[in-house]
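User: For my dataset I need records formatted as: sequence, then structure tokens, nothing else. Please produce one.
Assistant:
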Amino acid sequence: FLVDNPDLVVTLTPPDFRHGEDVIDMQRFMLNSLQTHIQSLSHREKKFLEIAEDRIAGFGRLQDAAVMLLGANSFHELVRAINIDLPDLLDIEAARLCLEDDGKKYSSYGAHFLPADEADQLMGRKNPVFLLENSADQRVLVGLEKAHVKSLALIRLSATEKTHRGVLALGSAETDGFNPRQGTDLLSFLARVIEGCMRRWQKDSH
């Protein structure tokens, strides 16, 4: 009964210690159960602490990235900051600003062109963020064919009257560096920062 209901063990009062062939040592049984329970709690606590520390570190890197992007003084500087400086700040392998080609002629300053509606093809129409494990085959689609990329994060960049639709592509050298089990709220925040910068500077590229 106690094996099937281990949570009850912690509420029991240990019996007096007794000897004998027909006596079950409940104290030892309870002690072993409590030790196992404590080890499980300690392991869970350590895991939660690791997750929290990673989260805090990731938020700090994202803050630095946002400050850097907001400091761009032109669309050219924005694209350069994303393609060159952002990977180091986020501790990833590569990043690329990808813009859909809407038929208008403008300078990309190093941004990667996507065919019209390609963002929906890559991510699906309803996904603001799409995380892909083992995605080395897809890296060429977002201009990262020369990078040592094994997993991808694709973050949608919405269009406005002043900006083009696009995708922010982030590449990790780890096969599970980006995976569907991860949270995406920080990545979505980064996309909003970039959209604000694009509204400010993309008009200069026309």
